[in-house]
Amino acid sequence: MKTLFYSLITAFILFSPFQKTIMAQDSVEVSDEVLLELYDGARVVDVVDGLVTVGYIDVGVMHPRMAPLWKDVVSMEHRIRGIAVTARYGPTNRPKHPGVDLTDPANYDEYRSWRGMWYHELSNEAFMEHIKPGTALVIDNSGVNDAGSTGSYNIMEWTRAGMTGLISAGGVRDIDEIILQRNPVYTDYMDRGRGERIGRNELLDVQQPVVVGDVTVYPGDMVVADADGVVVVPRRVAVRVGQIAYQELYADMANRRNLYLEKGLELDDTVRERDAPEVFFERLGLPADPNKP
């Protein structure tokens, strides 16, 4: 009887309207390029509303301590939208240096060799091969002994490879230069790192799930960040959430544009005219209405 009961329950769940909705959401697959265009200009608040609409309440929204290092509310260059590439650093369990007195100048050459080994073998940047145009790099490096995993030089290398911005649990150094370079970075400022990686941390994982800002991030998830914070959209629902977010954004821009015109304000990019949702979705090859089966 128990077997029959559980079979009936399983069948009910699998074929219930709720489960069919979940399965329908899971079945939508698009290229990274289409997803990036869908989220172009997306705001965190609209994406959060989209997540709620598909049943993801309090999912994907990072803790408020994850905030931008700098903001430019004219150009909006601090905003990030990208496909997640993930990496995880952890505190080392190795000796600071096996058997060598680093205070002795005679051991400087050996120190340099040890330092090179640490950067190339233990705490490298193997995730670089995964960075491409449209990447949002997400690094979990909490509790890594004040190590600065991100600095003004390597973040420029990542940007050159196509990274749109960095979401890092902490471990950011050279902050003045990063702001001057206008590299979009969202981090917990109170967990920044001042020291080198050597003797402090090791690279543990690349392209595996990480937890940053109390949110689990999988490679391929959509990441959106602005002055309201950071939100991560699971890839399985990224298309529908992105469409709903676009509908919200389109309506808000149109309504605010009317108020701008009424008050004689100079129009800016936050109220520019955009394609109507159905036109935009058709161009991307997406359903005209994300809320209809």
Could you explain how this protein is built, in words?
The chain is an alpha/beta fold and about 290 residues long. The protein has two domains: about 30-60 and about 235-293, no CATH class; about 60-230, Glucose Oxidase, domain 1 (3-Layer(bba) Sandwich), CATH 3.50.30. The chain has helices spanning about 1-15, 15-25, 30-40, 45-55, 110-120, 155-160, 175-180, 240-265, 275-285, and strands spanning about 65-70, 80-90, 135-140, 165-170, 185-190, 200-205, 210, 215, 220-225, 230-235. Strands 1, 2, 3, 4, 5, 6, 9 and 10 form an eight-stranded mixed β-sheet that branches. α6 (about 155-160) links the parallel β3 and β4. Residues about 1-15 and about 20-25 have low confidence and may be disordered.
